[in-house]
């Protein structure tokens, strides 16, 4: 049962959250109150949020593409901007598409895409066992299979040459820029989900190199990158033998690079 706050208590909590840098303090106060059963529990969760713990870890779920996806502490929190990648993938999909979500985390990207496609067949992989456990929990609700291992390594051979939609929400923050990230990302999310190497494109290179072996003819690969990385990322995809194009969204403040295996 949600904690009922007086107007004065609500105002106080909102002020504390806002002072801690929470942009949507009113919404967060409401969600924290709804997630707790007692004033003491609310005080504990609020203190953790003010100390920087991601809201999603405290709630146990993240809202992504209109879906409520369970998330465990220590798993990468999908960003709102990544919904643009999801929209692009759905726009390129057909009924019965085989969807593969690499670096899947809690599975939100693959779930969002496959939920919008009739008869989609979803597989996913992540190197982190906690993320795979989290994704497996979500796939039990939404459908899909999760594999534990490094990128393509744990996937069944039956997927080779059959993937219509391949998403890889790889880490793309350059190592030297990690210190500039917000504390709730830098201090709470796994480094492996953030650090993209010297130029932020190390993992992207590895995915692009193998993607042609897994994509079906006419299949598409989708990456999210920084604006200043998009041209280099596009060149990497082209060098791997895929047709490449760059799409941007002002609404979502993000850039996606799309690679297509020529039919």
Task: Explain the overall architecture.
The structure is a single chain. This protein is α/β, with parallel strands linked by helices. 37% of the residues lie in helices and 21% in strands. It contains ten helices and nine strands. The protein has helices at 7-19, 25-34, 39-50, 55-59, 83-91, 108-115, 129-142, 183-186, 202-214, 230-239, and strands at residues 61-64, 67-70, 98-102, 121-126, 145-148, 163-168, 215-225, 243-249, 254-260. The strands form two sheets. Strands 5-4-3-6-7-9-8 form a seven-stranded mixed beta sheet, with helices on both faces. Strand 1 (61-64) and strand 2 form a beta hairpin. Helix 5 runs parallel beside helix 6 and helix 9 (202-214) runs parallel beside helix 10. The radius of gyration is 19 Å and the shape is globular.
Form type: globular
Which structural class fits the helix and strand makeup?
alpha/beta
Quaternary structure classification? single chain
- The share of residues in helices is 25-40%
**Widest beta sheet: strand line-up:** 5-4-3-6-7-9-8
Question: Over the alpha carbons, how many angstroms does the gyration radius reach?
Answer: 19 Å
Note the gap between the termini.
55 Å
Largest sheet: 7 strands, mixed
**Residue-averaged pLDDT, rounded?**
95
Give the strand content: 15-25%
Order of SSEs = HHHHEEHEHEHEEHHEHEE
Q: Uncertain spans, ≥5 residues at pLDDT below 50? A: none
Q: Please work out how many helical segments DSSP would assign.
A: 10
Number of strands: 9
């Amino acid at each position: 049962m949600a904690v009922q706050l007086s107007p004065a208590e609500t105002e106080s909590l909102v002020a504390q959250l806002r002072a801690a840098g929470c942009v949507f303090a009113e919404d967060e106060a409401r969600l924290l109150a709804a997630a707790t059963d007692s004033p003491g529990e609310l005080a504990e969760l609020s203190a953790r949020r003010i100390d920087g713990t991601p809201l999603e870890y405290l709630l146990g779920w993240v809202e992504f593409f209109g879906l409520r996806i369970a998330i465990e502490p220590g798993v990468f929190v999908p960003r709102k901007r990544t919904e643009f990648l999801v929209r692009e993938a759905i726009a390129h999909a057909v009924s019965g598409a085989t969807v593969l979500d690499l670096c899947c985390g809690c599975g939100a990207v693959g779930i969002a895409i496959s939920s919008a496609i009739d008869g989609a067949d979803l597989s996913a992989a992540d190197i982190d066992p906690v993320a795979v456990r989290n994704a497996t929990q979500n796939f039990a609700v939404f459908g899909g299979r999760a594999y534990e291992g490094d990128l393509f390594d744990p996937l069944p051979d039956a997927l080779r040459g059959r993937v219509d939609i391949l998403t890889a929400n790889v880490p793309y923050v350059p190592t030297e820029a990690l210190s500039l990230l917000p504390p709730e990302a830098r201090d709470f999310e796994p480094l492996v989900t953030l650090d993209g190497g010297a130029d932020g494109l190390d993992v992207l290179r590895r995915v692009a190199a193998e993607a042609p072996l897994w994509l079906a003819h006419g299949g598409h690969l989708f990456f999210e990158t920084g604006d200043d990385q998009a041209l280099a990322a596009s060149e990497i995809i082209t060098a791997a033998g895929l047709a490449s194009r760059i799409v941007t969204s002002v609404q979502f403040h993000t850039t996606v690079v799309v690679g297509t295996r020529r039919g």
